[in-house]
Design goal:
By secondary structure, the protein is an alpha/beta fold. The protein has 5 domains: 265 residues, LmbE-like (Rossmann fold); 48 residues, no CATH class; 135 residues, Immunoglobulin-like, CATH 2.60.40; 116 residues, Immunoglobulin-like (Sandwich); 204 residues, Class I glutamine amidotransferase (GATase) domain (Rossmann fold). Helix content is 23%, strand content 26%. The chain has a 7-stranded mixed sheet, sandwiched between helices.
């Protein structure tokens, strides 16, 4: 019995205790069972073993490995699989960021929405390779050319403290970085920064003077034995000599003792879970039985034969733990795969031995693991279902509890507890083998129940780091359960507690889908446009849509405006009779007389409570359904901007917001497909805008380009936004234009980069808006990426020169060619980030591009 379970009635935060039980259960058990349909035809070892016996082997070691990188997909899944499933070590991957600043290969989600999806992809990957998952609060801000830039953007002290915290929470014996420290290079500033912080945290985690507030919060100092870099294959990033450390070679190949698969095949499937990054095909990659890995010494004691050199990986290292090792060895020797319940008495005898040990994270993990092993031997399973996936504060929620057991061991189901809101149901029922036992419990959801939102997004952070009010959550991959449930059982005089949470089950395209129960407001709000442009002092309509989650929702909706802005009327009353009923209200908003920008929030008052949440659903087939409920906000921008022309065609790429930006500039937008690029369908359009990566995403574009270029030659204007140098690209313009080669040198990551006007009298910079240096102020994340590496300089005019610190200027970020009577524009400038952010100068420059020739 874990110490946490003994003190459950006294704890002030029972959900934290529950989380320790549930998260370990989900992560460890999911790694032990792999669907037969997903298994490869790898050569099996001579003898496979029971998953329970493998779990006992894991239980009998206390070794721990922490792998550290910067992003989702950085991790070496082969390494995680080898240590977690092969050696049975406690193994985890710490990703400093959630991948918020990256690209999305399969959908329109960017920023925090993409970060949430990639969080779930990592959890899905860990369920396959057997590792655990941690994060810091650092926010991914796109490509960075140096660790200095990265650490200046992040709050270095705070992110370093997060790494120290996770080391103290997880207690690794060995830390393995994915990237080298200087003078080696990770090829990305975030990568190298992750290694720098890992080595610094390795030195600080055992120092009581470092981050002493963590010790007051219940953590204790911990000093790992060593930190090493898992060197790249093929010489990437420099070898061991480059960074001055001895190198250890280790074969991290082999076969999973349970499934017979190679670790390589499992690792490939794990990596293939990063589908938003285009790695889905990794699952079919050829597996290898032997995989050589190098480990370069970075700090601590040098390993000469194995990464665990000098580390006692047995229970003998735990004071009072030697007897546990002997008992487990005896249990494994007598274990009967066809009768696992025969081991239950011996396993129960282990629990008092564990209870006598001083609690620490490793011992507590093994206590929870022992309970899972007992549960598996009993064939004991629990399931909590809810009839709905969403509940409004103040409503009732009926939970159906189902318990099954396959063994004939005497087990009594004594009670079920819900930890929030606190409620207990006494059961007192003896379980019968292969007979489902059910009960129901009705919860009254508190009227002040917090609405569901990922914990790292509940408060507004800075540009480089998320704000988390409860430091105990830092490192967790996802929220604690909203309604934690415990099942209590009595077995031979001992109490066994199994953690669970309610799930709503619904049919999906590949079988049933399970979703956590979320708390939602009675209504959600949404602005018709995320950005509204105003001429200074002018008025224009701003539409707010309100949608009911429950029938009969009634109240008032109003706007909370930044200083100097006004709205009429003050509010609107609404009554929404049905579920999912919607109503749209138009406020007349007046901008201040000066150029300015701010954010407006939509607020609804229902039953005396105030709600201001959007509803954002993220639903990919390979992931659980995800709900985001950020504040219902939009950007208001008062600026001087003119645009010429009326009708624009927009060819979508990979999810940018150019169409809405064009509408804000006053254009009538027609959405185009590849087959619409004909003389007839382009007739009447003043310009055509390509979304980002359209040449990468649209397979049928090549055959329709001649008609598009003819449209330009006849007087039309085309603006093509950035593409990636991947695969076989069609011609990117009417004249030679290439984005071949390495991408990092052809991008400007500093959003404050100085800008030089190379063609100051070109219409792009003069008509209809006079562009100045102030128009490049307030840009976000980056200036641009994937600038052309070569172009026909006789036809394309380079408009701007930009450079990152200590680098030569790049001149291909904005290229304009006259072609016949029209203009063809190719730009790597990050309009797809600036326009949704309401950057005034980006709108003025974009308007000039669309207005060319008018």
């Amino acid at each position: 019995m874990t110490r946490a379970l003994f003190s459950i009635a006294r704890t002030r935060d029972p959900r934290r205790v529950f989380k320790a039980l549930l998260s370990a259960t989900i992560i460890a058990l999911s790694a032990a069972v792999v669907g037969a349909a997903e298994r490869s035809a790898a050569t099996a070892p001579a003898e496979r073993i029971s998953p329970i016996l493998q779990d006992l082997r894991s239980f009998n070691t206390v070794a721990t490995v922490l792998h550290i990188g910067a992003h989702p997909d950085d991790e070496n899944t082969q390494l995680i699989t080898y240590f977690a499933r092969g050696r049975g070590y406690r193994t985890a991957y710490l990703s400093l960021t959630r991948g918020d600043g990256g690209q999305n290969e399969i959908g329109p989600e960017f920023d925090e929405k993409l970060g949430l999806a990639r969080t779930q992809e990592l959890l899905s990957a860990r369920a396959l390779d057997g590792g655990r998952q941690f994060f810091t609060r650092a926010i991914d801000f796109g490509y960075s050319k140096s660790p200095e830039e990265t650490l200046a953007f992040w709050d270095r002290k705070e992110v370093l403290g997060d790494v120290v915290r996770i080391i103290r929470k997880f207690r690794p014996d060995v830390i393995v970085t994915r990237f080298p420290i200087p003078p080696g290079s990770g090829g990305h500033g975030h990568h190298t920064a992750s290694a720098i912080l890992a080595v610094e945290a390795f030195k600080l985690a055992g120092d009581p003077a470092a981050y002493p507030e963590q010790l007051k919060q219940g953590l204790s100092v911990w000093q790992p034995k060593r930190v090493v870099w898992n060197g790249f294959s093929g010489g990437r990033g420099g070898g061991g000599a480059a960074i001055g450390g001895p190198t250890l070679e280790l074969d991290i190949g082999g076969h999973d003792p349970v499934t017979g698969e190679t670790f390589s095949a499992i690792a490939n499937r794990s990596r293939a879970r990063h589908i938003t990054q285009g790695f889905g095909a990794m699952a079919s990659r050829a597996a290898q039985a032997s995989v050589q890995a190098s480990f370069v010494h970075l700090g601590g004691d040098v390993a000469k034969v194995d990464l665990m050199d000098g580390i006692d990986t047995t229970w003998s290292r735990v004071p009072g733990g030697a007897e546990i090792g002997r008992m487990v060895a005896a249990i494994m020797a007598q274990f009967k795969p066809d009768a696992p319940a025969a081991s239950v008495p011996a396993l129960l005898a282990l629990r008092p031995q564990l209870a006598r040990l001083t609690a620490d994270p490793v011992v507590d993990d093994r206590r929870a693991q022992l309970d899972r092993i007992i549960q598996a031997c009993l064939g004991l399973s629990v399931e909590t279902t809810a009839p709905v996936a969403e509940v409004v504060p103040g409503e009732s929620l009926v939970l159906t509890q189902t318990v099954r057991i396959t063994s004939k061991v005497s087990v009594e189901w004594t009670a079920t507890r819900v930890l929030y809101p606190a409620q207990e149901l006494q059961i007192a029922r003896d379980l019968q083998s292969n007979v489902a036992s059910t009960a129901e419990l009705t919860l009254k959801v508190p009227a002040d129940a917090p609405l569901t939102q990922p914990y790292w997004l509940r408060a507004e952070g800075s540009s480089g780091i998320a704000k988390v009010d409860d430091p105990r959550l830092i490192g967790d991959p996802e929220n604690l359960p909203t309604f934690p449930v415990e099942y209590h059982f009595e077995i031979d005089g001992q109490r066994l507690v199994i953690a669970d949470e309610p799930k709503h089950i619904s049919p999906g395209p590949k079988g049933e889908r399970r979703r956590r129960v979320d708390v939602i407001p009675p209504v959600s709000l949404h602005f018709a446009s995320d950005v509204s442009l105003f001429a200074p002092g002018s008025s224009r309509p701003v539409d707010v849509e309100i949608k009911s989650a429950r029938a009969g929702a009634a109240g008032k909706v109003k706007l909370e405006l930044p200083s100097g802005w006004k709205a009429a009327p003050n509010d609107f009353s609404f009554t929404l009779g049905a579920v999912n009923a919607t109503a749209r209200f138009t406020f007349t908003v007046t901008a201040p007389a000066q150029v300015t920008a701010g954010r407006v929030t939509a607020m609804a008052e229902v039953g005396g409570a105030r709600f201001a949440q959007q509803r954002v659903m993220i639903d990919y087939a390979h992931l659980p359904v995800m709900l985001l409920q950020p504040p219902a906000r939009a950007r208001l921008v008062s600026l001087d901007v003119a645009a010429r022309g009326r009708a624009v065609g927009y060819l979508p790429g990979a999810g940018d917001d150019s169409a809405r930006a064009l509408e804000q500039l006053g254009y009538r937008v027609t959405i185009l497909t590849d087959t619409d690029l004909t003389a007839e369908k382009l007739r009447g359009l003043d310009a055509v805008v390509f979304g980002v990566r359209a040449f990468n995403e649209r397979a049928d574009l090549t055959s329709n380009l001649p008609a598009l270029f003819a449209y330009v030659e006849a007087g039309g204007t085309v603006i093509a936004q950035y593409n990636r140098p991947a695969g076989s690209l069609p011609p990117l313009g009417p004249y030679a234009l290439s984005i071949a080669g390495s991408a990092p040198p052809w991008r400007i990551t500093d959003e404050k980069s100085p800008v030089t006007f190379l063609a100051p009298n070109h219409p792009v910079l003069t008509t209809p808006n006079r562009i100045g240096r102030s128009d490049f102020e307030g840009w976000v994340q980056e200036r641009g990426a994937y600038f052309p590496s070569s172009w026909d300089e006789a036809h394309y005019t380079a408009i701007l020169a930009l450079n990152d610190p200590d680098e030569k200027p790049l001149t291909s970020g904005l290229l304009v060619a006259r072609h016949g009577k029209g203009y063809y524009v190719y730009t790597g400038l990050a309009f797809f980030r600036q326009l949704p952010a309401g950057v005034p100068g980006a709108y003025r420059l974009f308007a000039n591009l669309v207005s060319l020739g008018k």
